[in-house]
Amino acid sequence: MNVLIINCGSSSLKFQLIDSKTESVLAKGLCERIGIDGQFTYAPANGIKETSQKPMPTHDEAIQYVLASLTDKKNGVIESLEEIDAVGHRVVHGGEYFSKATLITDEVMEAIDKCSDLAPLHNPANLIGIRACQKAMPNVPMSAVFDTAFHQTMPPKAYLYAIPYKYYEKYKIRKYGFHGTSHSYVSQRLAEYMQRPADKTKTIVCHLGNGASVTAIENGRSVATSMGFTPLAGLAMGTRCGSIDVAIVEYLANKENLDLEGVLDILNKESGVLGLSDGLSSDFRDLFEASKAGNKKAEQAIEAFCYNVARYVGQYVAVMNGVDSIVFTAGIGENVPGVRSRVCAYLEYLGINLNITENRRRGEECLISTPDSKVKVWVIPTNEELAIARETVALL
Ligand code: ADP
Q1: Is there a contact between 385 and 5 (Cβ–Cβ < 8 Å)?
Q2: Enzyme catalytic residues
Q3: Residue 341 falls within a domain, yes or no?
Q4: What's the first-to-final CA gap in the chain, in angstroms?
Q5: CA angle (13, 142, 219) in 5-degree steps
Q6: Using a 6 Å cutoff on CB, does residue 283 contact ligand 1?
Q7: For residues 91, 362, 188 and 29, what is the CA-based torsion angle, rounded to 10 degrees?
Q8: What is the pLDDT of residue 391?
Q9: What residue numbers bound the domain in which 112 lies?
Q10: 363 lines ligand 1 (CB under 6 A)
């Protein structure tokens, strides 16, 4: 079965065509600057990656370029559109409507639309992508796989904020959590690795990318997660501040003469390790380089990031009354040994012992703790597209 995975943003559309039998990527690519001028990148698995300028006034044109490239005589990977058996859409917010992936129907579209309030930057874009695909492939079944769904198993004590209860009832203000597809994929992969049923495990997954979150997964179910009502909460990230005292918002607005939007812009785009390093970079490659060259703010940013990850791990050990495995994933988790070792240095009380040699590995599945380490530490690269393809096939 060939599944086309679509991850749609307001001006971008990422895609992968996955053969679900071999779980291999046949082709992937990216449409950028949709509605502006349009740039198209296409990379067939056995061919050459190409980037070209293409007019893309809307997502409809973008999806047309995707389909034309996939079926192109020279660089295509399938003969015709008939060979696309299903489309899996990444949808950011499923609110309380969706606790798992679902096939897309008119009612599902309506519910996704109702969640647009909760994710105004993402859900409308996801809907545009779904509609563009429906237009281009009217008879192909489509699924929606939600970033929030995996965390719907959290108990009320974990998802309720201590604000008047009526605001939860009236506006659904609560913790939702994100990166669910990644946390779920990685924890399942770990259970396979350990040859242990997922329902007998206590795992903490640290998804550390540009956006970052930590999740406590008990018996295969999310019981607590660091992101909240929005992805701004929890860890300090690349450019997001993470959880801070909310009173700062008003104080900063007054001092800098900003409106709410202006302050939120700072907290979303100029904070995190970028902010801590005094604007140097949100990328850990730059931060480590600068730190090695003696830049104290870069060093502080790295250490604060690791401290925060360890802080959440500590919380989640308490929440689950124990932990068997800690997993690092995503750009930083998979590729930065220095972050993993610094986080684990805070966790020695758990009986964690890192294997220094194994911890040097990057981007591959590996156990990085020593055989006598009481808690096992793993690196498991995430693969959200494959997870969406699997969910889609399961639904069909
Ligand atoms: P996103 O949230 O955008 O999906 P990723 O999971 O791709 O983010 O992570 C991107 C981040 O991972 C980069 O900003 C960088 O800090 C870090 N990163 C990725 N690869 C490396 C590497 N080889 N060395 C150091 N840092 C890396």
Answers
A1: yes
A2: 147
A3: yes
A4: 10
A5: 95
A6: yes
A7: 30
A8: 97
A9: 2-146
A10: no
pLDDT tens per residue, range 159-210: 999 999 999 999 999 999 999 999 999 999 999 888 877 778 999 999 999 9
Residues 140 and 200 in one domain: no
- Which residue lies with its CA nearest to atom 15 of ligand 1? 283
Q: How far is the CA of 331 from the centre of ligand 1 (A)?
A: 3
Return the CATH number at 52: 3.30.420.40
Does 211 sit in the ligand 1 pocket, CB within 6 Å? yes
Which of ligand 1's atoms lies nearest the C-alpha of 212? 2
Could you tell me if the CB of 285 is within 6 A of ligand 1?
yes
**Last residue within a domain, chosen from 108, 128, 146:** 146
- State the total domains in the chain: 2
Q: Concatenated DSSP letters for 125-139?
A: HHHHHHHHHHHH-TT
Question: Residue 121: is its pLDDT beyond 90?
Answer: no
Q: Are residues 112 and 202 in the same domain?
A: no
Q: Could you tell which of 282, 284, 340 is best to mutate to test the pocket of ligand 1, judged by most ligand atoms within 8 Å of the CB?
A: 284
The pTM of this model reads 0.95
37: its two tokens: 């001028």
Residues 35-74: tens digit of each pLDDT = 999 999 999 998 999 999 999 999 999 999 999 999 999 9
User: Which residue's alpha carbon is nearest to atom 23 within ligand 1?
Assistant: 335
Same domain membership, residue 118 and residue 36: yes
